[in-house]
């Protein structure tokens, strides 16, 4: 059963990766870099502060940052524990695919998918009642995650697992935010008293 699932995953990856068109390689190479999205992160921060005020906006940004730190830590631990080779390093298929990047670490699960979906969903949950067009933010994690297939570094299951983990993390931190906000407030008040 597991081998059949992994074979499906490899076959699906080879098929999807093969849909890439050389003329779009530069686009996917740009989309896949985190630095490309810095203006979006600045927009998220600006919107949280402008919609909630300086203090509560900063508390929400802190919650996002704490979540990202946890998501990255769990993603990296899982990659080391599972030890699944990336498609670009897998000799069974790397001659069949288009490779635009060659990272040497492991594949399962996608940190790009986990972080982008977690950030987007948490920011969306914070802003959905204050910003009508907040759902448009989901274009980022979809493009960001798809790019990992087109550059040859993640299987579909890596991306789907990362997506589900990221979404679950966002829901968890959305629920935890009131507790975290109270903690931030106490810490801030303690610093002001000194």
Explained architecture:
This protein has one domain: Vanadium-containing Chloroperoxidase, domain 2. Helix 2 packs across helix 6 and helix 5 crosses helix 7. The mean pLDDT is 92. The chain contains 7 helices and no strands. It is mainly α and 194 residues long.
Shape: elongated
Number of DSSP helices? Answer: 7
Structural class label: mainly alpha
Mean pLDDT: 92
**Residue windows where pLDDT falls under 50 for at least 5 positions:** none
Descriptive terms for the model:
194 residues; mainly alpha; Vanadium-containing Chloroperoxidase, domain 2; elongated
Short summary of the structure?
With 194 residues, this protein is mainly alpha-helical. It contains seven helices and no strands. It has one domain: Vanadium-containing Chloroperoxidase, domain 2.
Topology, element by element:
Blueprint lengths: L1 H17 L6 H7 L6 H15 L1 H29 L28 H17 L11 H12 L5 H38 L1
Helix pairs in contact: 2-6, 3-4, 4-5, 4-7, 5-6, 5-7
């Amino acid at each position: 059963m597991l081998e059949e699932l992994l074979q499906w995953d490899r076959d699906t990856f080879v098929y999807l990766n093969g849909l890439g068109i050389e003329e779009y390689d530069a686009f996917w190479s740009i989309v896949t870099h985190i630095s490309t999205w810095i203006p979006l992160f600045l927009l998220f921060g600006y919107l949280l502060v402008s919609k909630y005020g300086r203090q509560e906006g900063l508390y929400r940004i802190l919650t996002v940052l704490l979540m990202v730190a946890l998501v990255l830590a769990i993603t990296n631990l899982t990659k080391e524990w599972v030890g699944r080779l990336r498609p670009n390093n897998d000799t069974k298929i790397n001659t069949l695919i288009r490779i635009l990047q060659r990272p040497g670490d492991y594949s399962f699960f996608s940190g790009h998918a986990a972080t982008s979906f977690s950030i987007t969903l948490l920011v969306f949950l914070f802003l959905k009642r204050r910003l009508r067009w907040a759902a448009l933010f989901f274009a980022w994690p979809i493009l960001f995650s798809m790019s990992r297939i087109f550059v040859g570094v993640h299987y579909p299951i890596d991306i789907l697992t990362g997506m589900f983990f990221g979404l679950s993390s966002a829901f968890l931190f959305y629920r935890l935010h009131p507790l975290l906000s109270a903690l931030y407030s106490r810490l801030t008040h303690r610093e002001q008293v000194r």
